[in-house]
Every structure is written in structure tokens, then in C-alpha cells.
């Protein structure tokens, strides 16, 4: 069933539609929170909190302003920021997240490519750990959650141009640290 129909039904008080929305977005919300926080128990707590809040307040959602997923991503990012502030985390450790099977895809088979990918991921993890939380958010939202610049701006609470600027700055910092060869996957970055 289409998300818009589920949202409308949930807004009308249909508990089954709300449950279906929960089931559809549970893993996505958890993975976004995990990418932002780097801790699975914190991510589970934030995802549960964000989904519960969204479904209890679904009557406040306005489809004319954003898609349901953008609205939910905004809530999830906000809750993740709150969790990070409460724990006084200086940055988002993505090493754990990337270590859970969300590695950069390398379609070249064989042990040599495996070794090269592991080496690249190790350097990338180190470089990501040195980014500020705002720049890391931009990278996670763009390359993990596949958000558009407009969605990124809506979620991060900034303009579309600021979202572009943060992502470009993050990419430039990664390129400066890792070199162009290490971040070929960023070369395909297009404005959409």
C-alpha cells in the first residue's frame, strides 16, 4: 500500500495503517539513527522515540510541506541531536555503523579488491571521525539516506544552499585527507 494512503488512513485514526507505517519505517529510522549516533542501543531508543512521536502526532503532518519520510527523518535527526547532546558526545563515531555491513560497495571480486576496500574503509572511518557533527550529518543524509539537497536542508534545519555547502565542505575535507583516489565514490555527486 502507498505511503500517502497509509498516512491519510492513520490521520483518520486507523491503527492498522499506523502499525503498517511503523513496520515500513522502523528499519530505515533505526539505520539513520545508527548512522548519526554510532551506537545501536542509542539508535534503537531514538528510532523508537521518533517513530512513536511521529505516529502519535501524525495529525500534525502536512503532506503539502514535505514527504512523510522527510518529516520522519527530521524528527529522527532532531532526536539524535538531543541524544548526542545528553551524552555530550563530541562527534558521531561511524566506525561501528560501517562495521555492520554498510561498507562502501566495491563490485570488483577477489581478495586483492577486498584488501583494497578494507584499507579504503579504514582511512574513510578515520577521516569521518574528524568531521564536525554537522558535516557528518550531511554525508550520512546524502550518501546513506539518499536525501536530496532540499530534503537535507529540511531535515538539518537549514537552507538548500547551506545543505549543499555543508556537503561540499565535507567532501572537500575528505578529499584533502584521503586523496582523490580514495574517495572516487564522491566523484559522482550531482546536485538534484
What does this protein structure show overall?
With 192 residues, this protein is mainly alpha-helical. Helices cover 68% and strands 0% of the residues. The chain is built from 9 helices and no strands. Helix 2 packs across helix 4. The longest helix has 23 residues, at 15-37. The two termini are 27 Å apart.
Give me a quick take on this structure.
This protein is mainly alpha-helical.
Global morphology: elongated
> What are the secondary-structure elements, in order, as H or E?
HHHHHHHHH
What class would the helix/strand composition place it in? mainly alpha
**Estimated helix fraction:** 55-70%
What is the beta-strand fraction?
under 5%
Uncertain segments are 100-108
Enumerate how many helices there are, as a single number: 9
Tally the beta strands. 0
Mean pLDDT: 80
Distance separating the two termini: 27 Å
Radius of gyration: 18 Å
Largest sheet: none
Write the SSE topology.
Layout: H1 3-11, H2 15-37, H3 40-56, H4 68-87, H5 95-98, H6 111-129, H7 133-144, H8 149-156, H9 160-178
